[in-house]
Specification:
The complex is a heterodimer of chains A (138) and B (305).
Chain A lengths: L15 H13 L3 E7 L10 E7 L6 H13 L4 E8 L6 E9 L7 E8 L3 E8 L11
Antiparallel strand pairs in A: 1-2, 1-3, 3-4, 5-6
Chain B lengths: L1 H13 L4 H7 L2 H11 L4 H22 L11 E5 L5 H14 L8 E4 L1 H4 L7 H12 L3 E4 L15 H14 L5 E6 L1 H10 L1 H6 L2 E5 L4 H14 L3 E2 L1 H16 L5 H23 L6 H4 L1 E2 L1 H5 L11
Parallel strand pairs in B: 1-4, 1-5, 2-3, 3-4, 6-7
Classes of the chains: A alpha+beta (138), B alpha/beta (305).
Chain lengths: 138, 305
Amino acid sequence: MKLRQGTFSFLPDLTDAEIHTQVQYCIDNGWAVSVEYTDDPHPRNTYWEMWGHPMFDNPDAAAVVFEVNECRKQFGDYYIRVIAFDSTHGWESIKLSFIVNRPKDEPGFHVSREEVKGRSMRYSIKSYATDKPEGKRY
Amino acid sequence: MTNNNISEDKNKHLGKIDLHAELVETGVEQVLIDLDKSLIGLEPVKTRIRETAALLLVEKAREKLGLAHETPTLHMSFSGNPGTGKTTVALRMAELLHKLGYVRKGHLVTVTRDDLVGQYIGHTAPKTKEVLKKAMGGVLFIDEAYYLYRPENERDYGQEAIEILLQVMENNRDDLVVILAGYKNRMNTFFESNPGFRSRIAHHIEFPDYSTPELLDIGSSMLDQLNYYLTKSAKDAFIEYINLRKEQPHFANARSIRNALDRARLRQANRLFKENNGPVSAEILSTLEEVDIRESRVFSGGIDN
């Protein structure tokens, strides 16, 4: 099951040239772009591991594409995303986030149902991959 | 396949490209004219830059007409004595390459050894990469590049920085242009001990020293910008000064001239205070007299730094 998180996730995977164009758009808007990775793709897992520092002072997107490729070398079987943070007063949040790398095999999520109080149902989801310990999931 | 067809179609449509129109249109002409006007002397450098610009323009035209072309290697080395305009030319070069479409942003990042080489194990690689990332889309100018290589210390981290540089120079050729600069002799030794660099750098440009009349011209244009001028006798004294100063150690061409003129302005200000001839006119405030030049230590055999 292909993970659908962030912008562009219903499109085919972006090529490096497309990533470059998107990132350049972010930089031109003055957002700080950074690269993050994880092997725990639960939708509520907001904070992924940072790949280096956010890149504040690179005027060109080639630097970000370079870092994405460096990250792919080490974490080729992880989810990698690019996020752009807008520090403008009043926003101070992520403006754009998209996945740039995913594991070859994505097993998807298990929905567990729990009956509580009368006939109410409580649902939760869990990635099949997270049964294994960190670093051995994909 | 489709791409090929498109370029063939284009070929038929366009057929010809007016190189001169292209030169004007891209704004390259303007940069070259500015270069000619704002830089005094440096004829060989200007010729080389014109040649390089022509090559790059032809390369772009070939690309448009669908002829075989490959991105030329643009990494350069500037060698010459201090104060011969290497940094200034590098700035212009960045602008030129940007207008020609070979770098995307056209900014210049100036670094020395300290910005690239770390102080402990594992510090160098991230530091160098950080600088390279900053320079992507523009031009990286490494001043006194030979300091990167220190043969006397085999555990020097400079070698690590060199390896990363070479790797990025090769793999990210479309992303950044590297210009190495420094004194001629030391650059030569540097290239000899690092053959990887020599082969990756296509353009070696030498910056000659300025002649006395050129230095005088440079001085005059500096003063012009500051609304100062030299009297006739001051000019003669200044020529004499330049000739004396040239023979002394640590002569830094245009930079020495700027420093000499700064000191002359200082002396002029002092003189005006001492003379105390009542109110002064703009005329008096912008005139540098012979005494302002003659008072320099250089005339009595001393050294001005």
